[in-house]
Description:
Layout: H1 5-31, E1 37-38, E2 46-50, H2 57-66, E3 72-73, E4 86-90, H3 96-116
Amino acid sequence: MQKGLLEKNLKKTIDLYRERRNLMISCFKKHMPEGVSWTEPLGGLFLFVTLPSHLDADKIFKKAIVKNVAFVAGSSFFCNNTGHNTMRINFSFSNKEEIETGVKRLSELIGEELAGQ
């Protein structure tokens, strides 16, 4: 910290996460089926996604893992047994190609769920 490395690295990290967030949002806009919405956070490392109310993210999670996509079911963040149609998705860990591929896979899966309902 005395050498000023914290500020230098902090700026690089913020820029990197901003780029990844923007890419994920762009991919969501391009690929997500109608009826899916998401946050566009000003900070943090996650998007919070809301699916149409009749979809259950806990059930979709099991299918997503088979397709090599992971998220945290949003119901974990609700204390009143709601939020089953929500998910939290991290954008900080994955590189550009992984974000693009993951969003495509998840979008296709959600589209399949919507078509089957």
